[in-house]
Amino acid sequence: MRFMMLMIPLGYETAAPDVQLDPERVKAMMKYNEALSEAGVLIALDGLHPPSMGARVSFATGKPIVTDGPFTEAKEVLGGYWMIDVKSREEAIAWAKKCPASENEIIEIRQVQEMADWSEEVQQAAKGFEELQEANANKARSR
């Protein structure tokens, strides 16, 4: 089962574009990342720049509208993620609990949707999705 663990650093929604990371916190997080990798459960991971460097595209009017960050209505934002492959939700939670997160960080755990989770009709509507994923993964590996 694939799970995405989403890091939500409270206060990151107002972080400046040039926010600096604490080297000691990065070292602690690297140990955690290495443990995920050594356990064979890590698929991917990345940190994200703050929302002040981002953009949102909304479609409320039926046409795309771009809003540059920061976003005043944001209460919580993502700071990064891990994609892991484990046997259960409980195992994903156990890994999240091992993270050296600080008091102002939350990890949200979300299971990735698999084709088998959906009705035959939905699977037919998404025909070719898995091949598309694989083709793009191969392109990414060859870059």
Structure write-up:
The protein has 143 residues and is of the alpha+beta class. The chain has 4 helices and 6 strands; from the N terminus they run βαββββαβαα. The strands form 2 sheets. It has a 4-stranded antiparallel sheet with strand order 2-5-1-6, covered by helices on one side. The protein has a two-stranded antiparallel ribbon with strand order 3-4. β3 and β4 form a beta hairpin. The radius of gyration is 18 Å and the shape is globular.
Unreliable spans = none
Mean pLDDT: 92
Radius of gyration: 18 Å
Q: What is the 3D form? A: globular
Query: Pairing-aware structural class of the strands and helices?
Result: alpha+beta
Order of helices and strands: EHEEEEHEHH
Q: Number of helix segments?
A: 4
Q: Give me the side-by-side strand order of the main sheet.
A: 2-5-1-6
Strand content: 15-25%
Helix percent band: 25-40%
Largest sheet: 4 strands, antiparallel
**Number of extended strands:** 6
Question: What's the end-to-end separation, in Å?
Answer: 27 Å
